[in-house]
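Obj.: predict assembly geometry.
Materials: sequence records (below).
Method: joint structure prediction, all chains together.
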Amino acid sequence: MKSLFITDIRDNQPVDSLFLVSSKNHGVTKGGSGYLTLKLKDRSGEIEGRVWDRAEDLGRTFDKNDFVHVRGQATLYQGKVQIRVRDIARVEERKIAIEDYLTKSQFDPEEMAKELMTILRGIKIPHLRALAESFFVDQTFMELFKRAPAGKSIHHAYLGGLLEHTLSLLKLILKVVENYQGINVDLLLIGGFLHDIGKVYEFSFDRAVEYTDRGQLLGHLVMEVEIVNEKIKAIPDFPEELGTLVKHMIVSHHGSYEFGSPKLPQTLEAIMLHYLDDLDGKIQSIQTLIGKEKESRWTSYHRAYGRSFFTGRPEEEKED
Amino acid sequence: MKSLFITDIRDNQPVDSLFLVSSKNHGVTKGGSGYLTLKLKDRSGEIEGRVWDRAEDLGRTFDKNDFVHVRGQATLYQGKVQIRVRDIARVEERKIAIEDYLTKSQFDPEEMAKELMTILRGIKIPHLRALAESFFVDQTFMELFKRAPAGKSIHHAYLGGLLEHTLSLLKLILKVVENYQGINVDLLLIGGFLHDIGKVYEFSFDRAVEYTDRGQLLGHLVMEVEIVNEKIKAIPDFPEELGTLVKHMIVSHHGSYEFGSPKLPQTLEAIMLHYLDDLDGKIQSIQTLIGKEKESRWTSYHRAYGRSFFTGRPEEEKED
Amino acid sequence: MKSLFITDIRDNQPVDSLFLVSSKNHGVTKGGSGYLTLKLKDRSGEIEGRVWDRAEDLGRTFDKNDFVHVRGQATLYQGKVQIRVRDIARVEERKIAIEDYLTKSQFDPEEMAKELMTILRGIKIPHLRALAESFFVDQTFMELFKRAPAGKSIHHAYLGGLLEHTLSLLKLILKVVENYQGINVDLLLIGGFLHDIGKVYEFSFDRAVEYTDRGQLLGHLVMEVEIVNEKIKAIPDFPEELGTLVKHMIVSHHGSYEFGSPKLPQTLEAIMLHYLDDLDGKIQSIQTLIGKEKESRWTSYHRAYGRSFFTGRPEEEKED
Amino acid sequence: MKSLFITDIRDNQPVDSLFLVSSKNHGVTKGGSGYLTLKLKDRSGEIEGRVWDRAEDLGRTFDKNDFVHVRGQATLYQGKVQIRVRDIARVEERKIAIEDYLTKSQFDPEEMAKELMTILRGIKIPHLRALAESFFVDQTFMELFKRAPAGKSIHHAYLGGLLEHTLSLLKLILKVVENYQGINVDLLLIGGFLHDIGKVYEFSFDRAVEYTDRGQLLGHLVMEVEIVNEKIKAIPDFPEELGTLVKHMIVSHHGSYEFGSPKLPQTLEAIMLHYLDDLDGKIQSIQTLIGKEKESRWTSYHRAYGRSFFTGRPEEEKED
Amino acid sequence: MKSLFITDIRDNQPVDSLFLVSSKNHGVTKGGSGYLTLKLKDRSGEIEGRVWDRAEDLGRTFDKNDFVHVRGQATLYQGKVQIRVRDIARVEERKIAIEDYLTKSQFDPEEMAKELMTILRGIKIPHLRALAESFFVDQTFMELFKRAPAGKSIHHAYLGGLLEHTLSLLKLILKVVENYQGINVDLLLIGGFLHDIGKVYEFSFDRAVEYTDRGQLLGHLVMEVEIVNEKIKAIPDFPEELGTLVKHMIVSHHGSYEFGSPKLPQTLEAIMLHYLDDLDGKIQSIQTLIGKEKESRWTSYHRAYGRSFFTGRPEEEKED
Amino acid sequence: MKSLFITDIRDNQPVDSLFLVSSKNHGVTKGGSGYLTLKLKDRSGEIEGRVWDRAEDLGRTFDKNDFVHVRGQATLYQGKVQIRVRDIARVEERKIAIEDYLTKSQFDPEEMAKELMTILRGIKIPHLRALAESFFVDQTFMELFKRAPAGKSIHHAYLGGLLEHTLSLLKLILKVVENYQGINVDLLLIGGFLHDIGKVYEFSFDRAVEYTDRGQLLGHLVMEVEIVNEKIKAIPDFPEELGTLVKHMIVSHHGSYEFGSPKLPQTLEAIMLHYLDDLDGKIQSIQTLIGKEKESRWTSYHRAYGRSFFTGRPEEEKED
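Observations (raw structure tokens):
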């Protein structure tokens, strides 16, 4: 457990704690001696560090993306607090607690995975059930799926967030389909399961949540088609049209071209998947925003939503 | 029951059936004699009628918006079938079956109203329950509410459609709130109940669904605020803020400015109401579109949706 | 009269002046003693204040939204000037001049109100004249109407701005209608009078211009419909359609959905009201922007307008 | 005066009237004989004509854009009325009344021109007054200016419409500037005069209103800059900046990029010109639309405006 | 070779020619006898056919999508020409010339394919050259690629159009890259080759150009990723990043979200591919539009382009 | 050559170098003595300077837009480095190297101009060639044309950038037209030459690149029409239509209304000019962005493009 988080560091304060090195650059002073400029991170934020003494020697002992033990003093420079580093040493990964560097879901990933598998094993169309199963037996995938975030910042943007969102969506689907006739719940469930799995590779999230090159260049929708094609190929006699219907839900689930879907939802299941996915993400996202500022009656203005949110609750909420 | 619907009238066919007069104009032939040009309607469509003989006399016996008994002959004029009217006579309203002129919900309005009242009587916040109750005891309102359509063409566009949509939305709300914490279900239910009630006065629907002048000039959102204000005033000590939260759901439920909401949804309940209302309308609308063309694999192109819909179903739908 | 405005405070300067407390937070130093962080305002801006000594005692004597007498020293912290407060004491509201905290119209509100009433008493349609009169006799309303701003920042954003804008619009209407036939000037005048009156309750403006909760959740258009409904109900035999035409001008006066009108202007009077309201606001707003920077040939870039404005005038302006 | 207008021609009716030939094509029947297909126009519409007999001989006597005297019989073909032409002969232009082929302003062009010149001669800045005068003495221009329409269809779309609109705008300017300070009325007047003069060459309007090639390829804004440059060059010592301010009003008067202004209005006069021009055009356009359908309470839906207009008037309009 | 094309059929004309049956429906007359309603197509258009006599017998001899020999008489019905079919008989596909039913490129597909292969064999990066080669040896693909259209209507919308467009683009690339440094021509060439190959399966084009279900549900961009993945997997040691760069060009080549690219072009090659593909399509499309109407100075208005095109050429074009 | 560039100045460093004065303001300290606040520029950036001693005397010796020799000390103020000026003296313009203050093209302007003239002298249509020649003989124009930038920031935003961009475009045109038939290369070349020449007067660029008043109020498109009109008038018998086609390319070359073209491209040459101009600008702009950040795999996010760019190159780029 870290002794000090970045968000708590004040001017003049002594620093003795662990950080992740997110960038590391060498410079030379006018006097000709070398120094290091570092960016140090933990889950609470980012701070600049400067190594003025023994920069060359110390610099050889660690690299970008290493965890380090830093000793020094906080100081104000150009209006911002930075750390004047006196000593710095690499720390082995097994000695750090990753949750000090990345936030994570409040739910247990193993529990969530179990619940998700139970739901999907209720699928009646054999080929779709087999498709779900082919992911469950893929241990590499499942390990990533349990840890992946659902995004960098919008919603469920923490370790385990992808699984949390996917499970919530599946449970929502089960409830909503009761209200309508003529919806194929199996298709909708498999669509709900697979709609974001590409995020497992769209992001890297071992030390910080970042886009991978592939993720940035292809996007999770297209990567999901690639993954699903791999799995389908291994299932004997998977009907082509059924595969197309599954992939159609994936490529259309953002709901409109502007949001990066190359196709609009054209089946009832694809339309419903889009709505429920959007609803689940928005509720989580807005509840989080409101939760952070519930002391004041209005949250600050959120540009992505073009509005503030009202945090007040009806006075009679608990009445009667 | 009508003997012949407009959609079935062919060139040269004798006509002897009931219609609604939707327009009636007098003309004079070059020879100087008067004639009548009529538009005749039933629930299947509209057709032109011409009265060449005894036009003055016959014209005195009925008016626009009357039901009439027409005898004559179908004939082709300028590429379109019209009725050359030999005889026409006004029919008393009590002798016609309104469902021959307006389509209606397949569900029984009394049953739906009962189910809706049961749900809303489950509201726990006393003032909100009282607000719902104040509508139930307003018999004039309830009669209209049971008959009103939810629109002219988009979704639930038939007699009883408003009640059908409102009830479906309330049931959907009850299911969806189970999946989330921190949503005030009472607020959401009263919002669901009231979100479209202005349509009761936005449309006239005794013979055809038309916008009223007030409906066209003010819109159902604003009219709902007026109605709710009336009801709230009659409830002792209704908290002002609670009223504001209810009215906020109403004025924001279209979800964005472009769709005519003067305010964006700024509470969790308002956001959820918007999503679920939109979902319920879309599902009903698209299922209707698909239902009409399920013989072909694709529906025709729908400009409002910017797409065709796929009507194919997974082959394994009934498998296992 | 304040001795010192925030905009004039420099590093190291002694401070001895009155301010409005816009926020007040308690903190604890590492040494364990309490301190206060304040936001202090006047009409020229906002500045941070810190109370390090006797924070507990001093903090008990005043609250957020109080006016205070502050004694201390300006000092630079993290690149910004703040006040290190030595002494602070609550000042009674009757001892401060509100115009030190809020800017106001350069015109006399009583004069403007008189001119406005004279114009509106020239309305010929009796029910519309009665509607105007019903506001004039509502003293609570009239007091607010004379003080309310027309906005937080866009145009006429100062005390009395709403009345100034409304009067200017009425005078503009009187001139413009001379150029056209078939415009009902009475409708247009009452529309001009009522189009923004909801701002009286949309904003609170006793110490700073802020949105009220109701204002933010319902908006001034909807609130105006509520107010007008109240007044109309008290006028015997007010024709429903006439009321609808008045309310239509209100709900459509922003001119398009994107700007928050739930209905587009559909009568000549509503269209003209939208144009003239927009013109009057824009002229005042842009003249203010140009006035602030008339020393340079171009104003800075204004994002809301997507442009800079040219401040140069034709050389021959005074010629001949 | 024409004896029969196209809009009044019915199936089977004998035709003996004058028309404008808007297209003329030769064809050959299967039997090998030649025939002519014509489009014939007058101010009320367009109709097809067919010449089956003596097509070669008759065809030699007239050409596209000629006026002709047609004798024949109306007949229904493929659901549309056309004229089976028995005889056709060219008519000299001096024998026809152009207003039978093009609608025109209800105001006298000479009277309007006089009023416009009087207003513009009130300009105080000598160079601007000289600029106006340089147009008045250009007889070729003035003749066109008195006859030109302001458009093909949107507003003031008839002979003399450009002058009518320009004069109305100048009178509007004179009224509106009284309400504001700091507006240079001379600039605004010259801008109002010149803002649409390019339409004189953008359209041809001797027989029908059509875009010229130059008009279509350059547009009236750019053509106006060309014209104004010509005039300015002939005025000694016209200050360059003054010319730029005039041309700026021209190139920005459509108000936004989407409406074809390559520059946004950046001076107060340019902004006001845009608003008042837009207002004047809209009022004329919408009053015309309402005038055409005032029998019904609502006009038909106008796509360009995205709405219908309410034609009802307040019942108390003439009261008191 | 067909003796008569639909576009040339006139009222009353005898018909004796070959057509494609695009729809076939059975009906029953009031008299109780069966009849057939057909849609018949060739490359010039579509016409309705009615079989009144021996409908049952004749109907058994052919089906939708068959080619048929039709004998009958053209006749006018409800303002449109249709064929009253006297005799109809199925014709074997080998007896018809497909180009009577579908238009095709004016260039020889074998020649185009050769030229395309020569260009792509000039690629220097071995894995990319191998990727191109893997398509050349896939005979099934190459046969389709030589026949496929590039679209239903926008550009190169005829048999062989895909190959014609692809080849033109490759040649354009070779020229344009000479003007810039730092562009990887190999990447750009492979991108140009593959950017539209999914159209081979997005459309069916054996009798008419139609979207396939897969094409409509997934779109050619996504289908191309699937195809390229198949090919890459069979090439030993194909570098993953190289594959990603190829697929990035594919998924981004429409250039913006609104046009269905799920990713924006983020490499120089992807950006250039987008521009040159767009240019090549537009030039072919607009040249075709102008070519069809070069008799008049302006083409008709094309909604997709929001404009007419000027067909006039500079008079001095051949001068000097 | 300057001894020190602004970008290299650090806190506490002595300063002794040349700068451009971009603003100069007088102030008075609380003590009553005068001081100067300066903005100093060179091609690397901008820095604030303060003169505390002898401010009045020193201030009389130089003005805004002068070059000055500054001696003083860098110091940190409110978190930013500024220069505390000890001595400052005006430097004659002939003694400074303008490229220290403005960046410039890496290509020799004389060489570029020669190559451009050679290309344009290859035009075959005599009047177009004469039009090009009329610019070449205009020495004032040519001097400006060789020095002008193509913009303030978007692309080719440095001295000589306009010529560099124009030449690159002409060479691109020559290549691309080989791929298409029916394009008039002469028109396209003259369009390419003239499409941006208005920038010569739209910007001032003797000390910094700034919009001129005329440039800001009229824009380079309109100014180009003015310039071309001047030149055409001096060429005997220049055909009006040919001039219109040239000017059409100019006024439409931004390609859409949103980007400030008052007309859409309506000829093949205008369409092609728009595409190739856009391509050439984008390639230069994006290559510059990538060049600046090629150390990291992704550039930072560019708002104007709505994306980051990938800087990675295919590993096999140099293979084979």
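Conclusions so far: Chain D touches chain C through 51 residues (CB under 8 Å).
To do: check interface contacts against the pulldown list.
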